[in-house]
Structures are given as structure tokens and as C-alpha cells.
Specification:
2 copies of one chain form a homodimer. Chain A has 12 helices and 12 strands. With 339 residues, chain A is of the alpha/beta class. In chain A, strand 8, helix 11 and strand 9 form a beta-alpha-beta unit. In chain A, helix 1 crosses helix 2 and helix 5 crosses helix 12. The radius of gyration of chain A is 26 Å and the shape is elongated. At the A-B interface, helix 4, helix 5, strand 2, helix 6 and helix 11 of A face helix 4, helix 5, strand 2, helix 6 and helix 11 of B. The structure holds a DNA duplex (30 and 30 nucleotides).
Chain lengths: 339, 339
DNA sequence: CCGAGTCTTTGAGACGATTCAAAAGAATCT
DNA sequence: AGATTCTTTTGAATCGTCTCAAAGACTCGG
């Protein structure tokens, strides 16, 4: 019931607290006999080291905060798993926080993590430039931006979203689509803006032959995708786009559901391509084409950069790692269309 | 850069550390003038309270550990979100840990959480009776079992899985199926065993008219569901079941993919019903029938019980809350079959 | 048996915030 | 003014662990 401390262990093993601490942290400098005695005492008492006190003394925590935009998006879960697998090897811990795209929640989580004096924070910020993050860094908490470009104050890992958007756009154009809709928002989210910019440039490269519509969304959720899908399905056929590029797979899934419920065929009546290539994309009603991001690698790399910075704060130079996205073609955009 | 402490704040505000602490914790007992001065000093220095030191002194943490079987299963993400929403209102924090169905990982996470002296732990244990959990409780960390039956040592919240299995079985039988396969495993997971027991009892109630096959799986993943699906699809039509009850929606999704890739129609050639009713079930290639569990409510209730126990450890009586599952019929089991 | 050199063990401060008894200061009443 | 009460502020002790200088115990060569 009562939690034991190092002192009780020391008493039972008839050694000083310093020795117990040594057994715990540098067992090799303690004589085997003493070490054994201490281990027995620990076992007998059911002693569990108080990491809080240790942390207070040592000043460095072994946990890393990861603040993501949306835990219910499997993309971020995969990123988190990537980060966690690296953390595991450094016996640290990742605590996953969900900002749910809300600045207030994001800030609360950052406050909490800073108060806990975490080793560092990985974050996919809600807004591009957040004074909170900058202050955090200024006060000494290392931060790595995930799936977001750095401002120079920190490291970052990202995937080239502009390129992704361009690839998606080019693919749809190559498939003969001349009326394409970008489904996503808000544009204040950097990733969304970039993907939009990418598809815009692909459309521009087609020299006026292709028309780009844009529907703005407030959140990148299945529900929002469905809602927009409903509106699109309701359009008269000649005003309707023939293809939709959704800012992420969640939206694409929702959009797809709306098509189905309105009896529109995918890809015959309307082709869809999503973004992220989450595992569920392949299992969708119509298997979803998507732009694949190296999800786990993103998380892995982010925490690598953080650990690097923590290990050698002095000679650390902030870096920006950028990965390339891939096009994954599935049924939802498989059809070639007569232009 | 250097993190400030209460002492520096006290110096700048020309008060004692005690007063600063009071401003932080019981501002109402400090005179307005002093309070203001302290706030200014805090702001000027960019002081952030060290929660670690606070915790050490106070002895009570504000964080709760949640250890789940599989973060990539949206079911658990929803449970986590339920828990988090309650934690938010009590300004505590939920840290989400993934055992990934592995006893070793589970134990490492529990150790870490105990060392951090978390307020309590919510856990979906890998194995039914874990000595680790019992020791944890014996040493004083409150535990609530989630989606798992209690042993009397702790509170628990769960959904009646046996009933769920029964409902699923009865539904398939009512739809005319006479050869049903249970897809799932391992049976060491209580939920799986119960769902299996449920469908078994439904089949038994049909008085020998219905045959129940069981395919055992090692993990409850999409990949495993797909693998089993492949094997089932390869069976000669007369040996093949006409319906599959999958232990969760992840498996059902994988199973469904295998059917599609082998040209088997769902539900015509084979009906499928899953379990959990995760959001993606409705968006599947063939919208998936499923047994719905109150996912968020599960998380909410679990943490409620924990907070209750922490608030009044003395007069707390452990409780077991059990919810009822619901049948959600979608296309994957919609067809009536001539028996 | 002494002294130098190795190994081990010791124990008194930190670390940063909270607490609480007691002191100091203000306000009120005679 | 002095006594009494109420409000604020103080600062030393405390939480559990780590660190490190220094003491103690041993070994070994001379």
C-alpha cells in the first residue's frame, strides 16, 4: 500500500541511500555482495523507483510529447507508432496528445507538456506560425515540427505536399479529367494549402484545358467530406466535376459515401483521389487512389532529430527533412476518360 | 533558455517563495496588490511551473495512463477520446500506451506508468488474469479494467460480449445462414472468447440446424482477417461457410477484401458481420454490419470510476459496469437467404 | 608493518514547489 | 493607547532521488 522509498530499501539492506542509488544506476561500481543484498531488499519491499523525484533531481525527463491534429485519423496514429518505436529503443516514452485542430486544446497540451518538463515536443501545429511554439522553444523545450515546414527555430520533417498535390492533379488530368474539384480546408492548415497549390500548378501546366473548382471545408473529417459530397452530388451533371482530389483520405472516404448514397458511380461518374494512403483507403467501398506518405518514417525521423538535438544541444544544427510522396492508383481513379 | 523557478519570481516580485506558491494555488488569500506584482514577475520571466516538483511534494499526479490493446484499431482511439474528454474537465491528462497485444510491452508500459506515479491506470489487459496488474494494485496504484471483467480487486467497465456474439449469431441465423464461421482469436483474449461463446450459444439455440466453424487467428488485425479470408475463399463452395462473424471490424475489413479479390460477392456468396462498429465499417467496400459498442462511453465511464476511487479511496466500493451492445445491419449481411 | 594505490561506501547537499506554524501588519473596539 | 481579532506574508521543513567529495576498507609491494 504505502509506496516504499530508497531509504527503506537502504535500511533493510543495511547500506546507505547512496549505495542503493548506485545499484539502481551504476550497478557495476557496487560490489556483487552488496548489490545482491540491495536487490533482495528491493524485491522484498516491492520498491518501485520514483521517476518523478529522479527527474526533478536529474532535470531531464525521458518522455516526449507528440501533439497531433487528429488522433482519429489513422495517418497520425501511424506517425505516432513510428515515433514510439524509436522511443522504445531509447527507453523513453511518447505521450500522444490530440489538438483536434483546435488552437485552444493545442495550447493546453503544450502548457501541460512544458510543465511536465518533457524532453521535447513533436508537433503538427494547427496554425502555421504559432507564437506559443516559439515561446516554448525560447524557454528551452526542443521542438520538432512534424508534417509541417520549420521556421528555422527548430527541426522539421515533412512530406512535399505541393509535389503530392501536383502528382494527384497530373494523374487526374492524364486520366482525361478536365473539371477537377479540390475538396479540403481550411487553407490555414499548411498541408491543405500546399496540396491545393500543387494541384493548381498541375492544372496550370495544362494550359487552360482544365478547370479547377475548390470547395472549402472547415475540418478534414469523414463527416465534412460527406457533406461536401452531398452538395456536389446535388449539382446538375454538367456543373459537376468529373474528379475530386480530397485533402486527405478521411474526407475522401466521406465523399465516396456521399457518391454511393446518391447513386453516383465511382470512378465512372466521378473519380476520387485521396491523400495519406491510410490502411482503410484500400478497404473502401471503391478502393481509393491516394498519395502515399511515409507515415511511420515521418514519426521515426522526427524523434530521431529530437533525440539528436537533446543529446548534443551545442553543436546541433536545425535541419529540415523532406520526403517525397508516392502515387497509389486504385479503382477510384482507374478509369480513362475521353476528354 | 534557463528555466525559471519560483525563487526567481519571488525575488523579482520582492516577496517570499511561499507567497508565490500561494498566488499559484490559492490566489484568493493573497492581497490583490501582491498578487498583481507576482503575476507580472511571472510574465516577465516567462516562468512555467515545474509540475514535476509539485507532484513530488504533493504526492499526487494529474495524469492517468490508458493502456490499450491496439492503437491502430479505431475502437480504442474512440475509447481514449472518451476518457480524454472527461480528463480534460478535471484538468488531468491521459497518456495513451499501446501494448499491441504483447505482454512484454504491456508490462513495460505499466512499469513506466507506475514509476511516474500516475494517478491511476485504465487498461485493456492482454491476458485475462495478470499478476502484474494485481501487484500494481497491491502497491497502491488504482486500476480500472476497460472492456474486460474485473476480478474484484478493481473497478471495470465492459460491454456484454457474450450477448454481442449471441446477437450476431442470431442475426445471421435469422437471415437463413446454416453454416457460419467465427473468425477471430486468440481465445486467450477474453473479448474474443466471449464473442465466440455468444455465437456458440446462438447456434446451439438453433437445435442442430446450424453448423459453426471456427478459424483461429493470432491477432485481431486487418492482415490476419485478410489471410483467413484467403483461405476461406479457396475452399470449395460446398465446404465454404455462407456467413462469417468476425471478432472485430478490422478483421472483417480484411476478410471482406479477401472476398473481393477472389471475386466472391458479399453478401450473396458470403455474408459478413463485424464487431465494434468503428466509423470505417460504414465506409467499407460493402458497408459492414456490425455489433456496436458504446466506445466513448466506455472510456468516459472508466475514468469516472477511477476519479471516484481516487477522490474517496476509503469508502470506495469497486463496481463493474456492463453495457449492452447493439446490432447494426448494413449491406454485408442484408440479404435473406433461402435455407 | 607501512604507505600507496584501488575499490566501495557514505552522507550531506541539491532539485523546485508546497505547507503550515508563526510572525508581522492592519483594522477594530474599548 | 492598548488589547483583540483578522488578514497577509514569511521561511524552514519536506517530498524521493542523485551526485560527488571524502572517508573507509582492502590489496600489495617493499
Amino acid at each position: 500500500m504505502a509506496t516504499r522509498n530508497i531509504k527503506e530499501v537502504a535500511q533493510l539492506a543495511r547500506v546507505s541511500v547512496g549505495t542503493v542509488s548506485n545499484v539502481l544506476n551504476r550497478p557495476e561500481i557496487v560490489s556483487p555482495a552488496t548489490r545482491e543484498r540491495v536487490f533482495e531488499a528491493i524485491k522484498k519491499l516491492g520498491f518501485v523507483r520514483n521517476e518523478v523525484a529522479r527527474h526533478l533531481r536529474v532535470g531531464r525527463s525521458r518522455t516526449v510529447g507528440l501533439v497531433v491534429l487528429d488522433v482519429s485519423n489513422p495517418f497520425f496514429v501511424d506517425v505516432a507508432q513510428g515515433a514510439e518505436s524509436v522511443a522504445d529503443d531509447h527507453d523513453s516514452m511518447v505521450v500522444l496528445c490530440n489538438s483536434a485542430g483546435d488552437t485552444g486544446r493545442e495550447r493546453r497540451h503544450l502548457d501541460q507538456l512544458e510543465q511536465q518538463r518533457v524532453m521535447g515536443i513533436l508537433i503538427t501545429p494547427v496554425e502555421m506560425e504559432s507564437p506559443w511554439v516559439e515561446e516554448l522553444i525560447a524557454r528551452g523545450t526542443p521542438v520538432v515540427l512534424v508534417d509541417s515546414p520549420a521556421t528555422g527555430l527548430q527541426c522539421s520533417v515533412a512530406v512535399d505536399d505541393r509535389l503530392g498535390g501536383q502528382i494527384a492533379g497530373a494523374h487526374l488530368i492524364e486520366r482525361g479529367h478536365r473539371r477537377i474539384m479540390f475538396v479540403g480546408g481550411p487553407m490555414s492548415i499548411k498541408q491543405v494549402a500546399d496540396r491545393h497549390a500543387g494541384v493548381t500548378s498541375a492544372v496550370a501546366a495544362a494550359d487552360g484545358a482544365v478547370e479547377l473548382l475548390t470547395s472549402s471545408a472547415h475540418t478534414l473529417t469523414v463527416a465534412e467530406g460527406r457533406a461536401i459530397g452531398e452538395r456536389v452530388a446535388a449539382l446538375p451533371p454538367d456543373e459537376r466535376p468529373t474528379a475530386a482530389f480530397c485533402a486527405n483520405d478521411m474526407m475522401a472516404l466521406g465523399f465516396l459515401q456521399a457518391m454511393a448514397s446518391h447513386g453516383l458511380r465511382v470512378p465512372e461518374d466521378l473519380a476520387i483521389i485521396g491523400y495519406d494512403d491510410i490502411d482503410f483507403a484500400a478497404a473502401a467501398a471503391v478502393p481509393l487512389s491516394s498519395i502515399r506518405q511515409p507515415r511511420e518514417l515521418l514519426g521515426r525521423t522526427a524523434i530521431d532529430l529530437l533525440l539528436e538535438e537533446v543529446a548534443e544541444p551545442e553543436q546541433h544544427r536545425h535541419r529540415q527533412v523532406i520526403f517525397q510522396p508516392d502515387l497509389v492508383i486504385r479503382e477510384s481513379s482507374a478509369l480513362r476518360r475521353d476528354a
